[in-house]
Amino acid sequence: MDTTPSARATEARKSRHLDIALEDDVASHLDAGFSGVRLHHEALPECALEDIDLSARVFGHDLRAPILISSMTGGTERARAINHNLAIAAERAGVILALGSQRAALEDPSLLVTYRVRDVAPKVVLFANLGAVQFNYGVTIDDARHVVESIAADALYLHLNPLQEALQTDGDTNFRSLLPRIAALCRTLGVPVVAKSVGSGISVRTAARLLDAGVAAIDVAGAGGTSWARVEGRRSGDPRREALAETFAGWGYPTAEATRALRLAYPEAILVASGGVRSGIDVAKALALGANLAGIGLPFLAPATQSAQAVSEALGSVVEGFRIALFASGCRQPHELPGALYGRGSSETRIAESRTSTSNTST
């Protein structure tokens, strides 16, 4: 592709996204839903904290914790250090790193270096990233293969962002007939394709079409974290455009709700819950709702502008909180967390209701 003004505009947009995410309040007006999720507290866990095993296996890769550092940046020179710091920390912790959209590197190959992290983290499990709509604007399957191979990625995030594109000036809004293109990509790419929303969630109906097309996993990327509608409004520099974007600040499916709905509909699907995940407890709640992985982005962005050690410390706090949440809910491994959900329909509630019923009958 080219190194035209379009490529320079993409790089400038990526840099501005970083500034807005770091400096402005662009959170969704919707709560991600984790505050309404409760886990059973086990006062007698019958194990030691050191017995808790956080390991998981996804796409044939062994992880030390079922956590994914969500896509944040790339395509601008300042992103190179950020991605290096994220990659080093992810490899140390044994979690996945997903890079930001690599469209900029297709437009300007000199920006590819901002995504390359294998020199500092040769063993990190790595996701490449492209916008699905770009397949209607000249990107080909060969381009997608190049994106994956050029950074030695283990999978490809294919993000779906119609709202964000609609709120961009001259955004790419032709989403016609994308599903057959996605299906062709899944058949031929050679690595897993993960469909991902961008802060608005994925419905059960949409997930059905994506899974039928062959995607290997779905990241709900629901509402409750960063609102990319608000980001684009701030970036526009146009008060009228920003006001329009603000009307979409509460748009989408909250992450907890979307995760639960998809797990109930598709018991065997691989799901990532991202969007408003802010702590190890949120990670535990996401997995209790049915996610295989939890994705976290914003809490690691500011540390990533400082150093790999700063990211490691922030990530370490999340992992330790996750470990304690399992311990305190009586779970030794992440796959046990769905049984620790507290509330109507949970095992805890059924036991209490059963005992109440028995007591009433006996009297």
Q: CATH fold name, please?
A: TIM Barrel
If helices are DSSP runs of H or I spanning 4 or more residues, what is the number of helices?
A: 14
What separation lies between the terminal Cα atoms? 80 Å
Largest sheet: 8 strands, parallel, barrel
Protein structure class: alpha/beta
Biggest sheet: strand arrangement: 4-5-6-7-8-9-10-11
Helix amount: 40-55%
Average residue pLDDT:
92
Outline type? globular
Brief summary of the model shown:
The chain is of the alpha/beta class. The chain is built from 14 helices and twelve strands. The protein has a single domain (5-362), classed as TIM Barrel.
Care to describe what's here?
It is a single chain. The protein has 363 residues and is of the alpha/beta class. It has one domain: Aldolase class I (TIM Barrel). It is built from 14 helices and twelve strands. The chain has helices at 5-23, 79-93, 103-107, 141-150, 162-167, 178-188, 204-213, 228-236, 239-246, 255-265, 280-288, 298-304, 308-328, 347-362; strands spanning 38-39, 56-58, 61-63, 67-69, 96-98, 125-131, 155-160, 193-197, 217-219, 271-274, 293-296, 341-342. The strands form three sheets. Strands 4-5-6-7-8-9-10-11 form an eight-stranded parallel beta barrel, surrounded by six helices. It has a two-stranded antiparallel ribbon with strand order 1-12. The longest helix has 21 residues, at 308-328. The protein is globular and about 65 Å long. The N and C termini lie far apart (80 Å).
Relevant terms:
single chain, about 375 residues, alpha/beta, TIM Barrel, eight-stranded parallel barrel, two-stranded antiparallel sheet, 12 strands
